[in-house]
């Protein structure tokens, strides 16, 4: 992620008898906020759904005996679910809801949202960029105004403490679950012919295995017959 410079700050001149803060942000916005355009990355819904299931697995993996939930926690999962399925634009990747909007969808308070997104960031599941926008007041004075954060849900490879599920073992040949070998293309073509298949369908089957020279020759013969008798 790109690093952006902090907003400029300045010191107010000391006033007699006044002991207050000596440095202030030039405008009332969060530090590290940027006015630069944020480039979101698209995320298909299928990918978002897979991420959600991985997040639940992560919470189950890290659950301790006698504790409610795991490393992620119930409220953080609620917030993540709202972000993935209520606010994420799958085609553009845009994800920039306010705390108030997330709180309404997740049915929690805004303070809980703040704690949840912080937790998700600590786990490497979420990152965000603070944003602000240039504006002018009615008197024409230039100001910066805080905007909502731009969020990115990170892949499981960056989650701290997450273990991907083990791949299921490959079934032994001839055992339950093993894929039986397909019959030869000649056998498939014969079966298709017996079941009333068209010449075009039979040719397609014969032509599907380029390593079977006999089937390829019969496919060419069938194509010649098809051309002579349209």
Short description:
About 35% of the residues lie in helices and about 15% in strands.
Describe this structure in words.
The protein has helices spanning 45-61, 74-87, 99-106, 110-122, 185-194, 199-206, 213-228; strands at 9-11, 23-25, 126-136, 142-153. The protein has 230 residues and is an alpha+beta fold. The chain has two domains: 25-158, Arc Repressor Mutant, subunit A (Orthogonal Bundle), CATH 1.10.10; 185-228, no CATH class. Helix 2 crosses helix 4 (110-122). The chain is elongated and about 85 Å long. The chain starts with 8 loop residues before the first strand and ends with a helix.
Question: Strand arrangement, largest sheet?
Answer: 1-2
Summarize model confidence as the mean pLDDT: 78
Count of the domains: 2
Considering the protein shown, what is the CATH homologous superfamily of the largest domain? Answer: Winged helix-like DNA-binding domain superfamily/Winged helix DNA-binding domain
**Which range does the strand content fall in?**
5-15%
Number of helices: 7
- Helix proportion range: 25-40%
Global structural class: alpha+beta
Note the run of SSEs as H and E: EEHHHHEEHHH
Distance between the termini: 62 Å
CATH fold field value of the largest domain = Arc Repressor Mutant, subunit A
Give the class-level CATH name of the largest domain.
Mainly Alpha
Count all strands and give the number: 4
| Shape-level CATH architecture of the largest domain | Orthogonal Bundle
Radius of gyration: 31 Å
User: Sheet with the most strands?
Assistant: 2 strands, antiparallel
Low-confidence stretches at least 5 residues in length (pLDDT < 50)? 1-26
Q: What would you call the shape?
A: elongated
């Amino acid at each position: 992620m790109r690093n952006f410079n902090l907003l400029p700050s300045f010191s107010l001149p000391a006033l007699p008898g006044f002991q207050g803060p000596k440095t202030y942000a030039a405008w009332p916005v969060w530090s590290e906020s940027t006015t630069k355009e944020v480039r979101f990355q698209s995320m298909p819904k299928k990918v978002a759904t897979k991420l959600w299931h991985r997040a639940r697995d992560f919470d189950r993996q890290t659950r301790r005996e006698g504790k409610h939930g795991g490393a992620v926690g119930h409220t953080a999962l609620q917030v993540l679910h709202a972000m993935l399925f209520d606010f994420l634009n799958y085609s553009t990747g845009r994800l920039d809801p306010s705390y108030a909007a997330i709180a309404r969808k997740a049915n929690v308070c805004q303070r809980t949202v703040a704690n949840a997104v912080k937790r998700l960031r600590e786990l490497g599941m979420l990152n965000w960029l603070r944003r602000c926008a240039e504006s002018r007041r009615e008197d024409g004075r230039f100001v910066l105004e805080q905007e909502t954060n731009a969020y990115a849900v990170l892949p499981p490879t960056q989650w701290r403490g997450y273990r991907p599920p083990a791949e299921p073992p490959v079934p032994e040949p001839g055992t339950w679950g093993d894929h039986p070998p397909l019959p030869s293309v000649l056998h498939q073509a014969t079966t298709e012919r017996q079941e009333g298949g068209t010449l075009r369908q039979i040719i397609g089957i014969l032509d599907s295995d380029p390593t079977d020279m006999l089937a390829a020759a019969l496919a060419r013969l069938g194509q010649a017959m098809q051309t002579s008798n349209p």
